[in-house]
Amino acid sequence: MHFAQNIIFLRSQHPERPSQQKLADVLGFKKSTLAAWESGRAKPSFDDLLRLAEYFGVSTDDLLKKNLTEKQVRPWMKEENLRVLVTTVAQDNRENIEFVPVKAIGGYPEGYGDVDYVAQLPIFNLPFLSNDRKYRAFPYEGDSMPPMREGAIVFGEYVEYWEKVKSGTLCLVVTKDEGVVLKKVFNYLEEKGVLVLKSLNERYAPYPVRKEDILEVWQFAGYFDREFPAS
């Protein structure tokens, strides 16, 4: 059981850094009850466990059985639509850049919110990317976005509020059906509840993706290719 240390860790990593009193007030607990959980002197009921797991954006199983401190995995709960971003952090608490390799890309739509899946991804850091933003790297496949070539590595910056993405922005869009695609995004979420995705290769027609089918959006932040692009 890692419940007590996980609660302390998740409180310290949550964007709001809630105190014992604030967390107790938000979730309807007594501060003394929360203190007893964190000291290991008491255990939560199933209903209380569910509320804690939902607040922190983790599963009840992870909350009870996995040492989240050791894994250095941090779930971020987004209030709007309760979106969750599971991310890894370095020992100095800086955000890592996770790389989703080709062999793992097919499972990303199912694993993007899973602590174990994300914890096993290769990690690195780049000095020219901002330390206060979240990035992830994905392999590029296909020929829809020239001069990008298959095999390039694309860096994306995590987008919390999809409605704020400006039309014409290049984004990595993660969907339930297509997985991870790099496209130019035209934003009609507020008017029609869709993003229209457009390739730079004119052979491919633009197409809409419904908001409910979108899992994540990462704004294009750069790419790496071993070969110089053809003119």
Task: Give the gist of this structure.
This protein is 29% helix and 28% strand. The chain is an alpha+beta fold and 231 residues long.
Residues in β-strands, percent: 25-35%
* Broad structural category: alpha+beta
Distance N to C terminus: 58 Å
pLDDT < 50 stretches:
77-82
Q: Describe the global form.
A: elongated
Helix content: 25-40%
Order of adjacent strands in the largest pleated sheet: 4-3-5-6-11-7-8-9-10
The number of distinct helices, counting runs of at least 4 residues, comes to 10
DSSP strand tally:
11
Subunit arrangement of the protein:
single chain
Rg from Cα: 20 Å
Mean pLDDT: 87
Query: Could you spell the SSE succession in H and E letters?
Result: HHHHHHEEEHHHEEEEEHEEE
Question: Strand count, sense and closure of the main sheet?
Answer: 9 strands, mixed
